[in-house]
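Regression test case RT-17, inverse folding.

Input:
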């Protein structure tokens, strides 16, 4: 008894070390750059000055509301800024590492759980998105827990597992639209397992159906948004190339050493599953794990063929837990080479992050909304106006810098009237996105009474400063 207790304590000590290292990896240089476009969508939509109703209304243009409501509540407690927004995402990412331990332990044992947590800790894809104010690490977390309790329900049939499955699946559905892909995949797997195992327990089948229905009912409130969205004929996602699986695999693991080792480990796990299949010893875990991965890609791919492209790397966070777990199963199968393999993977990750391929957005952000706002607010006065087609994005930083006048969209501004009392004007023109800028009439009005005296170029924009002409210069 003491030996078993000691082993359990040691297991959780190792898990704690993994969580601490995972946190340190993710928190390093967390605020090195400003937010990029998608992150600003999250922060503007969850502004603590908004009401819950306004936050949910915003969600109709993005994703279901769980992430946004949680982030909004977080900002009610902690400062509304880049660091704390990213810290919230980081915490959900670390929770995802912990969930992988319990998922791996359920599928095989504690060792597999620790290996799954370790592989998640150093997974480039997971690390990158755990450092961004978006819902992807939360999607990973809820997907892994939904499948964890899906497996437990099938194997243990305990009431607590039914309840947990219902709660986490409902949370998943209300976090991202790909939650529907997870639920559909689980329905297909459930039907297959019922026939494969020839399960005739009517009460058990009814309880499973009831859990799924209750989870689904939690999403009924969002159906009007779904029905409106399905009418969309165009989307920003592009069709995937025929080699997309190799492309996605590279994005997940990102360096040659990790790709090769992870690929070999996954192949080893699949070989073990194939051997059990030949020996007719296939386990429920095998079916769920493979089905989880295949259906996570197949369902959105089929929808892409039928309707519009919907398969995108970030959305496949629903499949990443299963992919990492497969690698962990392969790693656990090479006990005599386990330590060297783990050391090589960790060193390869650290070497790439530090010297070869820094984490996304640590050094070179795709947009410089923060830098533009910071420069312009240096001259902030109540007589200064700022115009940009992308004013909606810049307002977040202008609010943080306590600017007197937030940016305005030229298209909707009472341009000539607003110029009357202005002494200086900034015009921000995007160089990365389509930008109409000022109309010809607006530019004429500006040039009539103002002169350009400064132009600053950023990664994604050019900011021009205009000051009112003196009577002598006129």
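Golden output:
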């Amino acid at each position: 008894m003491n030996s078993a207790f000691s082993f359990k304590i040691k297991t959780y000590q190792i898990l704690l070390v993994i969580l601490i290292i995972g946190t340190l990896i993710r928190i390093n240089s967390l605020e090195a750059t400003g937010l990029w476009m998608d992150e600003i969508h999250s922060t503007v939509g969850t502004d603590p000055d908004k009401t819950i109703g306004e936050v949910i209304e915003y969600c109709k243009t993005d994703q279901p509301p769980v992430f946004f409501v949680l982030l909004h509540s977080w900002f009610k407690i902690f400062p509304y800024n880049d660091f704390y927004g990213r810290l919230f995402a980081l915490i959900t990412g670390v929770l995802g590492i912990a969930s992988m331990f319990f998922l791996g332990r359920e599928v095989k044992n504690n060792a597999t759980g620790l290996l799954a947590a370790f592989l998640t800790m150093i997974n480039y894809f997971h690390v990158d998105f755990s450092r961004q104010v978006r819902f992807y690490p939360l999607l990973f977390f809820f997907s892994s827990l939904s499948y964890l309790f899906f497996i437990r329900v099938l194997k243990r049939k305990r009431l607590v597992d039914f309840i947990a499955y219902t709660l986490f699946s409902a949370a998943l559905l209300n976090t991202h639209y790909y939650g529907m892909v997870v639920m559909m995949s689980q329905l297909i797997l459930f039907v297959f397992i019922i026939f494969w195992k020839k399960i005739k327990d009517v009460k058990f089948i009814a309880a499973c159906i009831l859990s799924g229905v209750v989870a689904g009912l939690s999403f009924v409130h969002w159906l009007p948004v779904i029905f409106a969205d399905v009418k969309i004929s165009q989307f920003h996602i592009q069709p995937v190339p025929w080699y997309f699986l190799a492309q996605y695999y590279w994005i997940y693991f990102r360096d040659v050493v990790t790709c090769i080792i992870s690929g070999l480990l996954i192949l080893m796990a699949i070989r073990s599953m194939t051997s059990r299949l030949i020996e007719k010893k296939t386990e429920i875990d095998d079916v769920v794990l493979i089905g989880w991965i295949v259906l996570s890609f197949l369902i959105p791919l089929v929808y892409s063929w039928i309707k519009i492209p919907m398969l995108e790397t970030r959305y496949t966070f629903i499949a990443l837990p299963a992919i990492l777990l497969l690698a962990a199963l392969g790693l656990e199968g090479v006990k005599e080479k386990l330590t060297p393999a783990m050391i090589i993977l960790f060193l390869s990750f650290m070497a790439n992050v530090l010297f070869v391929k820094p984490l996304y957005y640590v050094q070179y952000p795709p947009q410089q909304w923060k830098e533009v706002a910071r420069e312009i607010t240096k001259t902030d006065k109540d007589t200064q106006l700022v115009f940009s087609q992308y004013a909606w994005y810049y307002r977040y930083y202008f609010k943080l810098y306590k600017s007197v006048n937030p940016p305005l969209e030229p298209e909707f501004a009472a341009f000539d009237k607003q110029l009357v009392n202005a002494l200086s004007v900034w015009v921000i023109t995007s160089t990365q996105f389509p930008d109409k800028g000022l109309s010809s009439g607006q530019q004429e009005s500006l040039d009539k009474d103002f002169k350009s005296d400064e132009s600053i170029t950023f990664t994604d924009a050019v900011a021009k400063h205009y000051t009112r002409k003196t009577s002598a210069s006129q």
